[in-house]
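Whiteboard transcription, Tuesday session. T.W. wrote the structure tokens on the left side:
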């Protein structure tokens, strides 16, 4: 784990997300420090995606606090959170089929700008488009996809489309990348390729929060893991040691088989 001399990039403090009597997230706390790749793992239905949706303001939290670089964001709208340098991918691929790969990634390089930017957009559009394209091509380079820049997403294998989604999230040079089950639906070779990509991004110093239920992948790439079950943290720490925890084994396999 990185030296903890500064404040955390992300601080999730006793966060609760309740829907009536359903406690999807029920008092989760953890921190992500600069340069870490923290894995959030747990069985299906344990609250992982609800948690990342809460961090990115797609779900309102019932109680608790979420801070980015020490600033409370729980009342911010998604665009404002994105402008703080927090970007994410989703479980389902969300590429626009009629745009080329590079055009899809260029969408991630645009944070919406300020009202003043919008007023002068006709004068600045060409320059902004050039900047966005350069940023998009750089992001595609980071995920090994530059040669496919002018293709439509539908022409690419599923695993490559996932890479394009990651590139789109990288195009704005985020300080925190949230990945919601990035290897869902992939075959073993594609999973291996994405795990190598995440390790490369980690070696570059990019702070990442990885939401997954694939313990093998998370154990390999993460510097630290947080295990949730029924909306609560049941274990946290070194990946290899934590998955050996009896509570974690029971959560995944059931008490009878643990």
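and on the right, the sequence the group agreed on:
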């Amino acid at each position: 784990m990185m030296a903890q001399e500064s404040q955390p990039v992300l601080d999730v403090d006793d966060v609760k997300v309740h829907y009536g009597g359903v406690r999807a997230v029920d008092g989760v706390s953890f921190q992500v420090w600069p340069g870490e790749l923290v894995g959030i793992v747990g069985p299906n239905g344990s609250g992982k995606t609800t948690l990342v949706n809460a961090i990115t303001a797609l779900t309102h939290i019932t109680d608790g606090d979420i801070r980015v670089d020490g600033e409370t964001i729980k009342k911010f709208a998604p665009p404002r959170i994105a402008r703080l340098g927090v970007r994410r991918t989703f479980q389902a691929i969300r590429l626009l089929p009629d745009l080329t790969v590079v055009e899809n990634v260029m969408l991630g390089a645009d944070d919406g700008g300020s009202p003043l930017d919008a007023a002068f957009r006709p004068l600045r559009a060409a320059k902004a488009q050039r900047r966005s394209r350069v940023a998009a091509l750089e992001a595609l380079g980071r995920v090994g996809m530059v040669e496919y820049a002018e293709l439509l997403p539908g022409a690419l294998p599923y695993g490559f489309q996932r890479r394009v989604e990651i590139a789109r999230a990288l195009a704005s040079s985020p300080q925190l990348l949230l990945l919601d089950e990035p290897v869902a639906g992939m075959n073993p070779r594609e999973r291996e390729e994405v795990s190598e990509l995440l390790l490369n991004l980690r070696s570059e110093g990019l702070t990442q929060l990885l939401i997954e239920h694939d313990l093998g992948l998370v154990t390999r790439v993460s510097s630290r893991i947080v295990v949730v079950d029924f909306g609560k943290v049941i274990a946290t720490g070194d990946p290899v040691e934590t998955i050996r925890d009896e509570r974690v084994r029971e959560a995944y396999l059931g008490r009878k088989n643990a």
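Someone added at the bottom: The chain has a mean pLDDT of 88.
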